[in-house]
Amino acid sequence: MAIIADKWYNLLDYSKQFAENGDLVGVADVLTKANPMVEDAVLIESNSDAGHLHAIQTSIPEGTWRRAYKGVPYEKSTQKQVMDTYGTLAANSLVDKLIAEKGGKINEVRSRQAKTIMEGMAYTMGKTLINGSLKKNEESFVGLKAFYNTLGTFASEDASRNVVSAGGSTANQCSSVYLITWDTDKVFTFFPKGSKAGLQHIDYTPNGKPEEVLDSNGNSFPGYKDYFEWQLGLCVHDWRFAGRACNIVAATTGANLRLAIDEMMARVDNHGTGKPILYMNRQVAFKLQQALDAKGNVFYTPNEPTQKPVMVYNGVPVHICDFIGFDEAVVS
User: Fold this and answer.
1) Which domain holds residue 271?
2) Beta carbons of 77 and 57 less than 8 angstroms apart
C-alpha cells in the first residue's frame, strides 16, 4: 500500500482549476484576502451532495508483542460515521445606472461595489467558521466553537481536553483564542461535490446594459446587478488537533492569557503534518504582544515583500480575526 501525501488547497487554489471561468478566480481572490481564516483553511471537495460523510476514530489498535512461531491477531480501529453539512451564503450587488455611469467607468464602479459585498460575505463566513450554530440559523453550518464548548483536563478523552479557561467570568463579554491545525485528516473545510469550489457568480447584465430593478415600494429604475453565492462547510475530523483558550475578558492579565494559551497548546496534539494557526481578535493579540518579553516577541517576514510581518507565538503564526469578539458566554 502506497502512502499518498496530501496537497493542500485553499479556496483560491481550487478556483484556479476552473480556468474557463476566470471570473471565479477574482471572486476567490477577494474572499481569501478579506478573511485570513479562509486563506488558511484547507479545502476539499465533499463526497456527497448533502455534505461530507466521514468517520471519526473512536479507538486505535495498540499492536501485539510477538515471538517466534506465535501468530498476531488481526486488529482494526473502531469508528463512527458523521455527516457534516454546508451552508449557502448569498448576496446581491446592485448599482443604480445614475451612479454606475458617472465618469464613464461602469465596470470599475460595479467592481468596487461587488468587492465590498464580497468582503462582507468573507466576514460572515469567518464568523460562521467560529460561531456557526444550526440552532441559531439552520441554513448555516456548525462552527468550531460548538465542538470546543466544555472545559476539560489533560485526562479528558474528548474535545473538552483541549479547552482551557483564562479565568474570566463575565457573561457574554468573553473572547477566545482558537488553535486550528488545518489538514485533510484533521480540520478542513469543504464545498459541495460537483460544484466549482462552491462559488457562483451571475452577472445579470452581461451585455453591458442595465436592467429593470424594483425598489422597496415596487417602483422600477435601471441598474446593474450581480449575484454571488458561496457554499462551504467545516469538518473537525480529528478533535485532537484543535483547541480553545476561552473566558478571556478585557481585564484578563497578560500572564493569565499566556498561561491559558500555553496550556491549551500543550493539550493539542502537534505531531504529523498540518498547518497550525492561532486565531484571536486584535485586542487579545495586543495584550499577548505586551505580555511577551522583547526576545519572545517574534515576528517573521514572508517571502513576498508585499506581505506584512506575522506575529508568532511558541512557533505558531498568529492571525487576527475581528469576528472573534468579546461576546461569548462563559465556558464552564
Assistant:
1) 11-55+81-320
2) yes
